[in-house]
Amino acid sequence: MTKPEKLPPNQFDHFYKGGSRIGALRHGPGGPMRPEEWIGSTTTRFGEATQGLSHLENGQLLIEAIIQSPLEWLGPEHLSAFGTSTELLVKLLDPDQRLPVHFHPNKKFAKTHLALDHGKTEAWIILEAPPGTGVGLGFKEKMSKSSVQSMVDNKDSKGLLGSLRKFEVSAGDGVLVPAGTPHAIDAGIFLLELQEPTDLSALLEWEGFAVDGLKDGHLGLGFDLVLDALALDPLPDHWVKELITHDRFTTTSNQSVFTHSADPYFRADYLTGTGEKVEAGFSILLVLEGTGSITFEKSDSLSVTRGDALVIPWQSGAWTLHQSQGIVCRPPLPLDAVTAL
Question: How far is Cα 234 from Cα 138, in angstroms, rounded to an integer?
Fold first, then answer.
């Protein structure tokens, strides 16, 4: 029977260091080279057949369960608009080293050059951030493709990092990263990421990372082509205000983490555990604090505690988190998704 389930940990090796805080939170393997966990994932790593996919408690792949019972998992409106795609990939990121400057193509580029239905707009919810740390987001000034290509060719990590606009972040902040935007994340920042369901990253630098950027940094397209997906203009100040939110954990009622600019891609709400109802629909919940329970309109209640990650099907109906705090991640509503780029 399709029902809410707690998800086993889903960490695996990556090209950068980290993962100990994921292991501590999720009772999983931890680091030192497992800095990501993919939660409720129906997406594979780029070029892989199964790595990245989440399993249910009985060992079945979540994607297989959804394909077997799509209506029960996703609901009629979602299924009519998106088919069996969940439209969502959720990750924990725990980098012990700075993430390299990189970017992701948008939906149009991915469709044209990679025959994929999604690009990779993403967003971060900051769980922990050492004082003074931050993220790089967009170029400081207008760049040319040739100048970026030159820095890539010369392995100019310092120049590429210095070309980004820096924003300090704290726990409870949200950062929306539109596809095409160059970005980097400081070491020590622990975050929950929502994104379109692909694994598409183009690296602009890779010194000190366990990856061959010349071979694997351009999605198999070559840098000359993949750089056409890079946004060369800086983000306007009025747009930055739409992309970055603050203090989303300091609230006594459920609150959206991002502005409406994220709605075409995904939704995330901070839940306070004070009895407010979440409407029916495919959801991924990460419990951040407390020990409590979840009650469902059409499923048995579940006890939950800090570190639990759950996948919740549409069939379970509306639900309420009690005496715990967490973040619920959901796909876009069909009407909102039509504006996704």
Answer: 6
